[in-house]
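Q: Acylphosphatase, please. Structure only.
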Amino acid sequence: MSQLCVRASVSGHVQGVGFRYHTAHEGLKRSLTGYARNEADGKVTVMMCGKEENVRALLEWLEQGPPTSRVVDVTYEQVEWQAIDGFSIR
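A: Structure for Acylphosphatase:
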């Protein structure tokens, strides 16, 4: 099982709807570390690190997001491993 970190950018109606809170909850459920952060352009950046299958599962969840959101697009890239404690909302 390989470990990896992925940074995703989620666009759509994703701010002001609990998106970061739900993302952190879903990340913790999958034993991932990372963060969810609002950006000035209206997107949410999600950093996730952990087992590859768990990262892929969170990426799949991000395609829909919580029921309160409307995800239009998710782009992501693998980044260098980072040791992050927990899954935070920034």
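A: Brief note, in case it's useful. The radius of gyration is 12 Å.
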